[in-house]
């Protein structure tokens, strides 16, 4: 029995070459933008109370020697302490902005999944057109991903609460180490199992259900219902896929990390030289002008790193996505969204 996950590695490499070569700058830049989106404890201490009045010290062990003592006046130019309520309000605003930004990026990334697959399917990369066509499906995918992830966290939270009751009998004031160790030994395997299941569901949804949704204009749950008989009927094929895909992901991550490391060092050299010249020209001290130049250089350096990351990811993410699409078409030809490309590499 042939194993599609093993056989399609070579075909995916050839399909990637066929899709990306000859080099087209416009196509690569558009794909870089797509893969940039699909690629997926704050300890604060309350401020000390500096507002203690002088009367609080008047009653502390005053003796005869205190007569004629003149208390030191507290300088009036000390800054007032930041109210605790304002600190927590600021924290809440920051957390809210981060969550909102994460939700927006998550939505865009979900839509880009459909943009990516359709680009591969049609051999034409059109971000604006495909985004407008699939934003509703992307919203459904985003909601599904968010729901599955929240269910995973909720399951771990419930198990953790049950373990706390069993091991501690409520909320302990001074739990012994044995209780803590026992709770950890039970909770960690549960967390591993739950988050592995969440990763598998989200991973299979992205790799296989999204193409089904695209091919047959289905919802996420409708896509899963359509894909489920294929998954259940070929568990061996998809089981091997999980193992091979895991190995490929590690290999690709190492390639990307190596390329990014070389690129980051190469880019850093000219920026460091320019920054050093600016520092020396500014009198070898961090003035406002020198600081502004360094900040601009740092922002430009980070922007170039992000662009480099996106370009490095183009062939890697294209290979991974074509690999899963080849497997999906082999397991059920009704779901084959890259039939023409498959025929080209297998002729």
From TrEMBL:
The chain crosses the membrane at residues 28-48, 87-120, 141-169, 181-214, 235-256, 262-281, 288-312. Keywords: Membrane, Transmembrane, Transmembrane helix. Signal peptide: none annotated. Residues 55-76 are annotated as: Disordered. The keyword Lyase does not apply. Coiled coil: none annotated. It comes from the Archaea. Pfam families: DUF7544. InterPro entries: DUF7544. This is Glycerophosphoryl diester phosphodiesterase membrane domain-containing protein. It comes from Halorientalis brevis. The lineage of its organism: Archaea, Methanobacteriati, Methanobacteriota, Stenosarchaea group, Halobacteria.
């Amino acid at each position: 029995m042939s194993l599609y996950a093993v056989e399609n590695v070579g075909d995916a490499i050839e399909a990637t070459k066929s899709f990306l070569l000859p080099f087209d700058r416009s196509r690569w830049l558009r794909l870089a933008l797509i893969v940039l989106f699909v690629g997926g404890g704050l300890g604060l201490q309350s401020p000390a109370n500096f507002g203690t009045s002088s009367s609080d010290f008047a009653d502390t062990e005053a003796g005869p020697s205190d007569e004629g003592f003149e208390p030191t006046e507290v300088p009036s130019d000390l800054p007032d302490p930041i109210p605790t309520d304002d600190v927590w309000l600021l924290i809440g605003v920051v957390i809210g902005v981060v969550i909102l930004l994460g939700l927006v990026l998550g939505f865009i990334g979900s839509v880009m999944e459909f943009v990516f697959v359709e680009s591969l399917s049609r051999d034409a990369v059109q971000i604006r057109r495909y985004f407008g066509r699939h934003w509703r499906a992307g919203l459904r995918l985003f909601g599904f991903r968010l729901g599955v992830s929240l269910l995973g966290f909720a399951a771990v939270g419930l198990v953790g609460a049950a373990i706390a009751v069993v091991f501690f009998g409520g909320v302990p004031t001074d739990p012994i180490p044995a209780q803590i160790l026992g709770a950890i030994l039970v909770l960690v395997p549960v967390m591993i199992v739950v988050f592995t299941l969440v990763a598998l569901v989200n991973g299979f949804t992205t790799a296989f259900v999204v193409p089904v949704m695209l091919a047959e204009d289905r919802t996420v749950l409708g896509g899963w219902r359509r894909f489920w008989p294929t998954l259940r009927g070929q568990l061996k094929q998809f089981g091997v896929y999980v193992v091979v895909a895991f190995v490929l992901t590690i290999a690709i991550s190492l390639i990307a990390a190596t390329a990014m490391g070389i690129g980051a060092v190469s880019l850093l050299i000219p920026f460091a030289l320019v920054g050093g010249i600016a520092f020396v020209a500014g009198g070898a001290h961090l003035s406002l002008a020198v600081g502004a130049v360094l900040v601009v250089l740092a922002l430009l350096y980070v922007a170039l790193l992000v662009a480099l990351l996106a370009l490095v990811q183009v062939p890697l993410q294209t290979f991974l996505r074509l690999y899963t699409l080849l497997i999906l078409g082999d397991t059920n030809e009704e779901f084959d969204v890259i039939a023409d490309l498959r025929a080209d590499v297998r002729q």
